[in-house]
Amino acid sequence: LYSKWNTITTLPFKSNEPAINRECKWTYGQLLSFTNYDQYYNEKYISLGGYGWSGFSVREVAETALILAGFNPELAKSSLRWLSKAQKLNGDIPSGQDFVGGAWGSFQSDNDIWYILASMEYVVRTHDTIFLDSIIKGKYFSGTFWEHNIRAFRWVRDSIGTGQHDLILLR
Fold this sequence. Notes:
α5 packs antiparallel against α6 (145-160). The N and C termini lie far apart (41 Å). The longest helix is centred in the C-terminal third of the chain and has 17 residues, at 110-126. The chain is α+β, with helices and mostly antiparallel strands. 45% of the residues lie in helices and 13% in strands. The protein has helices at 2-6, 18-32, 59-68, 73-86, 110-126, 145-160; strands at 35-38, 43-46, 55-57, 96-98, 103-104, 135-137, 142-144. β4 (96-98) and β5 (103-104) form a beta hairpin. The strands form three sheets. The chain has a three-stranded antiparallel β-sheet with strand order 3-4-5.
């Protein structure tokens, strides 16, 4: 298994220490081992979740898409499409997903914040502004990728709101 990851050559980092390069390649391989394909949404994504539940946490999909934007933009883009397809009509991205397109958990803001951050990181890193206008046909809402981001923003702003210090509530 180690030799398989040792053949990875296109990484966004380079160290003068061979041992550090090997460790980074190994860690990158571990990350990519969580790549999944969702037949319901027809998208690839990375999920570090699961935790023995009957589904998995969605937060990690947006968090890893943020990081992937810099060195695996296609997987980041697919993960962002996957999140968009799971988004509810009100803009909320559910906190969990089962394995047949069902969502659970609501009224949280962190999933949506990570989603918006990852979306913008993808566009900044890749200059793929055309993606903003691409149509995403979701389970609850179909619109452009940009419209999905606007819905997530409005969900956080209008439904989650801010606390006494005018900071977004994390719920």
